[in-house]
Amino acid sequence: MREFKNKKFLVTGAASGLGLGLAKTLAARGCDLILLDLNLNGLNELVRELRMAHPQQQFFLYEQDLAKTEELPDLRERIRRDVGPIDGLINNAGVVYGGPFQEVSLEKHLLTFDLNVKSLVTLTHLFFDDLTGREDSHLVNISSASGLLPLPFGVSYASSKWAVLGFSDSLRVEMNLLKKKNPQITTVCPSYFASGMFSGVKAPFLTPILTTEKIVNLIITGIEKNKNFVLAPPIVHAIEPLKGLLPRFIFDRVAHLLGVTTSMTRWRGRS
Q1: Is residue 3 assigned to a domain?
Q2: Could you give the C-alpha distances from 127 to 80, 131, 167, 193, in angstroms and in order?
Q3: I want to staple 108 with a disulfide (CB 3.0 to 4.6 A). Which of 11, 35, 97, 112 is the partner?
Q4: 267 in a domain, yes or no?
Q5: pTM reported for the whole predicted model
Q6: What is the pLDDT along the chain (271 residues), one digit of tens a residue?
Q7: What ranges in 133-265 are assigned the alpha helix state H?
Q8: Strands, E, within the chain: which ranges?
């Protein structure tokens, strides 16, 4: 994306964590924002702060449970009437549940897919005409480093992020084959970060817990430079080559020795 100023970005999960940081940074870059979250109090507080800091810009908030994907077409029409076409979509909203597979309720497993995958695909489809119709537009999908490798005790979360990665990269290549320049598509695959979602996890060796500020800055740079992927920390870049080079049983052993396979055993999540 060549220029942020006066662009309209839709950010999901904007009331806290990574979405909150992205909203504040995009506002500072001169963007008008459409902010979605189930947490209305958090959205109201954020919008009050943004309007005080950036009185010349427009900020729209929508309270929405994105897991209720049947409601999203109506939401899309509301945004069309209120805002008009958007220039950027950041699919950030997500949920994670940890624990042995059978001890996590089926409801939580299915909610993970409804929010992390189904809502992401739905919103992308609903707003895709906006993005393809703009001269300079961008789609950002938040996946995870766990979309690149197995994550025991977080199986639904990891598999949902595998789906996000496959969806985003397949769509990127499809756009290239169709010779369509917009939207540019960036898939973000961070390891654990300090948003509260991963409270209790033990970071693997050589994999520091990232700050949301660090990831936000990497995402903004990724948008500016039209990067296909944002991977963090640096060791995440080694996952794909190692998977290709090592026999699976050796890769699994290395992941275990590094603490990847046990990192979610003490997950607590948000309090």
Answers
A1: no
A2: 9, 7, 16, 28
A3: 97
A4: no
A5: 0.96
A6: 989 999 999 999 999 999 999 999 999 999 999 999 999 999 999 999 999 999 999 999 999 999 999 999 999 999 999 999 999 999 999 999 999 999 999 999 999 999 999 999 999 999 999 999 999 999 999 999 999 999 999 999 999 999 999 999 999 999 999 999 999 999 999 999 998 899 999 999 989 999 999 999 999 999 999 999 999 999 999 999 999 999 999 999 999 999 999 999 999 986 4
A7: 155-177, 212-224, 239-245, 248-258
A8: 8-12, 32-37, 59-63, 88-91, 138-142, 184-190, 229-232
* Number of structural domains in the chain: 1
Domain that holds residue 155: 8-258
Q: How much helix, strand and coil, in percent to the nearest 5, is found in the chain?
A: 50, 15, 35
**CATH number of the domain encompassing residue 213:** 3.40.50.720
Give 29: exposed, middle or buried? Use CB within 10 Å, 0-12, 13-18, 19+: middle
Q: Which residues contact 126 (CB under 8 A, 6 or more apart)?
A: 72, 73, 76
The pair of three-digit structure tokens given for residue 194, joined into one six-digit string: 């300090």
Alpha carbons 141 and 122: distance in angstroms, whole number: 12
Cα torsion angle, 63, 198, 116, 112, sign? negative
d(CA 132, CA 16): 29
What span, in angstroms and rounded, lies between the C-alpha atoms of 195 and 18? 7
Listed in sequence order, the residues at least 6 apart from 57 whose beta carbon sits closer than 8 Å to its beta carbon are: 27, 30, 31, 32, 33, 50
